[in-house]
Amino acid sequence: MELKICVLPGDGIGPEVVREGIKVLQAISKKYGHKLILEEALIGGAALDKEADPLPEDTVFKCKDSQAVLLGAVGGPKWDNLPRNLRPESGLLGIRKKLDLFANIRPVKLLPALQQASVLRQDIVAKGIDLVVIRELTSGIYFGEPKGIFEEKGEKIGLNTMRYTEKEVQRVARLAFETALRRKKKVTSVDKANVLEVSQLWRDVVCEVAKEYPEVELEHLYVDNAAMQLVARPYSFDVIVTSNLFGDILSDEAGVITGSLGTLPSASLNEQKLGLYEPIHGSAPDIAGKDIANPIATILSVAMLLEYSFGLKEEANAIEQAVEKTLGFGYRTLDIFREGQKKVTCSQMGDFIAMQV
Ligand SMILES: NC(=O)C1=CN([C@@H]2O[C@H](COP(=O)(O)OP(=O)(O)OC[C@H]3O[C@@H](n4cnc5c(N)ncnc54)[C@H](O)[C@@H]3O)[C@@H](O)[C@H]2O)C=CC1
Ligand SMILES: CC(C)CC(=O)C(=O)O
Ligand SMILES: [Mg+2]
Q: Where, in this chain's numbering, is NAD(+) bound (predicted)?
């Protein structure tokens, strides 16, 4: 099969972890006889430096012209003082919006070898963690208008708007219920309906959609409670569906209960199922350029890419198994390293996983 993929390495550790993702993609393509066509493009700070634009037109074109997109991460202190529309992060929000990638799927699975790396009590971890956060990605407070910093009565005010339409909630809720049907048949909808009107609408729409799925259990949690329950009883969740901001926060929390932010992948899909795949973490400027980042989140994002965009389930499984085998041999990047294990660099971890596929 021909696999045409646009690659957006981005900033900080983005290029480092993407390099390892590609290494594994090449190994799996060789093993299964697929032809890889990789097209690299600029996004974020890297694009700002070269093109004075965090999302050049050429990048949007190359993404649309591919069957899937693999992204590293964007951002860093070098660009932090730029106006909002020129920051690297606006390139990321821009590509999500332009491709209408409304559904951000973030599986949170405790890999058996990483049980000890969790920050949770071992009796809680032992009950297993296997949930998926479905985060609405192209609306909510990251996109709502009006927004800005204004002058009002002689003082500055900062303003953002959390806004959802019925249709926006319906489509992401439907995806959550469909996903639950193929899993443990439970949806937890996370909102703040006790104080926010936008959350009241969210809850009403989720309840309406739930009527189409009588076999799926529906639970509602306020986001503050959800953040607590995620560490108290992570084993009891199946599919969590929530808005852009809440999903962003809860999924980083999920990273540390399963070992490290550096291990969690994601897929962002539109209604035509064009997918952008990226680790859930950012550009990690504190460790960039040192070859110590954990590439597993990106490598598992490659597995999601093969399964979701190309239907290559066997290849995706082979990558997941290669990750588990490598961890099983005791190889660990710094973020998940414990006494008695074998410390490896980002590129060595990529080499070992590629060797196991
Ligand atoms: N999808 C994206 O491109 C995202 C971009 N960002 C941007 O990244 C920059 C840094 O943001 P932070 O808040 O520091 O979040 P971050 O996710 O980059 O890092 C948070 C912490 O996790 C660690 N970490 C992250 N990924 C890791 C990996 N693969 N291996 C080992 N450790 C890892 C970092 O070293 C840091 O201590 C900012 O400019 C932010 O806007 C943040 C989140 C997502
Ligand atoms: C620019 C941010 C919204 C990126 C982020 O934190 C994420 O998507 O997880
Ligand atoms: Mg985030």
A: 76-89, 282-294
Domain carrying residue 45: 1-109+261-357
Residue 76's domain is classified under what CATH number? Answer: 3.40.718.10
Domain boundary pick from 225, 257, 289: 257
Element (H, E) at 149: strand 144-152
Determine the Cα–Cα distance for residues 178 and 103; give it in Å rounded to an integer: 13
Ligand showing the shortest atom-to-Cα distance for residue 278: 1
Q: How far apart are CA 279 and CA 197, in angstroms?
A: 32
Number of independent structural domains in the chain:
2
Q: Which atom of ligand 1 is nearest to the CA of 284?
A: 18
Tell me the whole-structure pTM to 2 decimals.
0.98
Strands 68-73 and 275-277: parallel
Indicate if 231 and 293 belong to the same structural domain. no
142 is catalytic: yes
Instruction: Report how far residue 237's alpha carbon sits from residue 228's, in angstroms, rounded to the nearest whole number.
Output: 13
DSSP annotation string for 275-311 = EEE--SS---TTTTTTT-S--HHHHHHHHHHHHHHH-
User: Atom 6 (ligand 2): residue with closest C-alpha?
Assistant: 248
ipTM above 0.90, yes or no: yes
- Please tell me the predicted confidence (pLDDT) of residue 273: 78
